[in-house]
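Why does residue order matter? Because the sequence determines the fold. Keep that principle in mind as you read this record.
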Amino acid sequence: MGKFSCLEEGIFALKTLKSVENIYDREEEKKWLEAAFKSRAWFSVCGLRRTGKTTLVRSIAHALKSFEVVYINAWELPEEHSFEVFLERLKDGIIDILKRQKLKSALRKVSKVSFLGVSIEFREKAQLKLISSLNDLVNKKPLVIILDEAPYLLTLSTAQKFFAALYDTFAPNLVVAFAGSIITLKYIYERDETMPLYGRVEEELILEPFDEYTSKKYLEAGFEQCNLRPSQELIEKAVLNLGGFPGWLTLFGRISARKLLTKGKVETDKILTELEKRASLTIIAEVAKFLRFKRNFKVYLKILKKIAIDGETTLTEISRAISRDPSTTTFYLNQLMLYGIIKKENKKYRIVDPLLRRIIQKPNFEREVKARI
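Structure:
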């Protein structure tokens, strides 16, 4: 690769759509996803934030070239009218494909459809037009819809019913891949047999952070693409501070590689400080969004602070810290575990992401989160 092209297209590129060769490791997961797509299965991919779910799913779908692909990130949907905005985004994605395929009749059918600011009756008619255009599209070429951060939409029964209708109408020519920063999406769409999507989503892939060895090799491979050979001390310090999260490792690699390519030297501690400042804003916004509609959000913040400071702690210790009985405390902890913020191992709770843990410990963390709720 060229001097800076490694940062545009390679392992250290920030974009979530890459060539499969630039997705380091994950060979078993690549095979799993390829088989799921080729067998036209509906599936979900879950894991902690910044484990590379989006990049993996999008890149494999596009690499197969046998599907049209529409990608929608539910995290970006507004909290009000989120389903209507989702339908608008889906419509826009379909219009782009219809234009490429030059399906003029289907394009005319859907191009003027709107889902916002209209009556329920008209919205239902608009959905029928959208579904009619989908029918024209999938009959020509199979379609994949990737719904990222799916929990933020699937909590709505209307969204689940819509996807169930799509499955019943268009499968197997339509495939939906749900991705979420959550330990399992099945908790949302398959809690019991009455759920609209029950039995329609065949499998679930859980993506874990890299282990220490793979994290080091990830950084080494990214630097090698840039024709760089930084010291092992730099790589070991990065992995110690950032853990096995490709998202953080990529950002560290980009900052380090850019400085090495332009200045010929790098100060690891300064890069880690710079990265932590940038990450702080992202993490605070993510925690605030999670807590925005939670009752007693201050209790969640106390729990996070307790776990972050202690490193790992028990149910009894957390219950004592927040002055709640164990059953009530368990409810709060289960919510934090479901959304991948904390993890339970050997009856103790901890925060897996070391960068998240350090940011939660900062004195202004609670104040900054509250300001965004």
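The mean pLDDT is 95.
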